[in-house]
User: What shape does this take?
Amino acid sequence: MTSERGGDPKEGGAKPPFPEQRQDLPGSEAAMDPRPDYGETSYQGSGKLEGKAALITGGDSGIGRAVALAYAREGADVAISYLSEEEDAAETARVVEAAGRRCLRLPGDIQDERHCRSLVERTMGEFGRLDVLVNNAAYQTTHENVDDLPTEEIERAFRTNIIAMFHLSKAAMAVMKPGSAIINTASIQAYHPSPMLLHYASTKGAIVAFTKALGQQAPERGIRVNAVAPGPVWTPLIPATMPPDNVKTFGQQTPMKRPAQPAELAPVYVFLASPDSSYVTAMVYGVTGGMVME
Assistant: This one.
């Protein structure tokens, strides 16, 4: 384990080559080398989400942690959903609470529809409101050939990455008030799919379609639905799912020659959650390091 962060985004962030490393799923941010920068020393809030409450899936680490920190510093209470990564979740809770906001930790598997409904119910029970849902949790594995891709991994990817989005969004929209927002995490993989991420890329394509369709329905209730499509981002999914050689050069294929740090994604999620985006729905915002979405 190392305490070194992944570089200040303002200075370009950490660039490959990275040390070869391998973790077991779901991965741990605390064990990454270098540690990702989630904005603890750099993100400054300005009250854009004052008095609001947010539910973030995959909120224990990576993009989810960076968004949780940013939302807290913008004035929101935050509930974080995660599978079982208690050490990472405790770190997220620490920085949320250090910002003076409440953090509700909600472990469990979003493959279960009942658990998805309970996440919304418990958030409402704790905070009395739900203004922002961030559908961010994801599952991926890598395989060179479709013949090697187990059925259970295909089904788990779809249940975690897209079917849970239906369950969570339905439950959230039933309690959200006008002015609320749903933000989904898509991916550059929806536009430039990697053969070794066949099932993951397929779910991300589905998320883009889901966002564009629900984003046209939801305004009838005063709710906006948008998505963020990251390029390569330095998160625990990378050492937990990719071969060590791929980890070593991760992000090098972008025009910026490096992966994003989670802190570089958070401002877009803040924008889409705040009144600043009051006339934005059914859109997908790319944060890709120059990789073109088409």
Notes: Residues 70 and 266 are 6 Å apart (CA to CA).
